[in-house]
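Sequence only, no structure available. Ideas?
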Amino acid sequence: MARRFCVQSCPFIVPEIIWNLKSIIIEYLCNLNLVRRRKMGGKRTPLYGIYQKYQGKVIDYSGWELPVQFTGITSEHLAVRQAAGLFDVSHMGEITVSGNDAEGFLQYILTNDVTAMNDNDVIYSFMCYENGGVVDDLLAYKYDKTAFLLVVNASNTVKDYDWLVKHASGYDVEISDISHQTAELALQGPKAEEILQKLTDQDLNSVGFFQFRDNVDVQGIACLISRTGYTGEDGFEIYTDNELAIKLWELLMDAGQDLGLKAAGLGSRDTLRFEAALPLYGQELTEQITPLEAGLGYFVKLDKDFIGKNALVQQKKAGLKRKLVGFELLEKGIARHEYQVVNQENEDIGWVTTGYKAPSVGKSIGLALVNIDYSKRGTIVFIRVRKKLVKAKVISKKFYSKNYKKI
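Reply:
I predicted one. Tokens follow.
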């Protein structure tokens, strides 16, 4: 398995002007509750010391001091769509599961079918509570039947680790949280392969969608490289030792300089994943929102046993009472997370999970969890934007056509 390692940080003073950013930036961020007007003192990734060089605007995000933007959310968003962007996602959690029963254990813990994976495959899956709600959504990397890597949401790392340990009784497995040792960079965009290929002899064209390679030499740095993505574009996740993270970042930025590569922050990461209708835990998925309600039933295999199966089988049999839908505002405004959705009689029918004026689409669109009776495309609903009701229409969630490279 790839090596994982220790934090170096170089603190700098964050200027007070960060809290006076233009209103458009604040609007982009309020959806995620990213801006917290309090003194920062959170955890830092091993790349924290490089943010100032690239003019990173640092905020508190779930207890982490992370860049919301470098040159600007929209410019970074468009760079990923047209060329490439480089993200520091070292705050994500990494948990290893190894031992003779590793595959069988994860087959019971995860909703997706682990036994269908080949070595060096990656799958997207959920861990569910007994009631069908979501503990977390994650990626599972399979080295072989006895060794897996789980990449989980930063804010859920401790919860996920505890959940795994709680249910490991009777299984021959060892569970380790290696998050504090691991740096992760995400290189995303149509130029991603061309940029990374400059730095390695590994044939990146041979790395298929949702596959990975371990111990890849990137200019002398041992890395694990996968090809999944959270932006709707082709790209790679690159994991390495903490102490090598800054060197790796600089190598990538230099390699991409002539190809339009930009440093990118959390703000554009959210607008990109939203346009591609990719869920965010805490918004489209929660302890109270099931994968079926979120329209992600493809990743739930009801022909096998797993925690939460009975509740989801019953929910499917009874029929969904609510559903995640896409919508477009037909009047001026921007819908935000938790804004109320009502019908023409002003009756509550749901709420917005994510909403933006999407940079690539050029429209004010959103995702909302609504009463099933209002989920049909073309249905007129109203979003309560501050004190005003804004007319909207239910549309497909396919706001943007994904550009993954599948071989």
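DSSP finds eight helices and 19 strands in the chain.
Hope that gets you unstuck.
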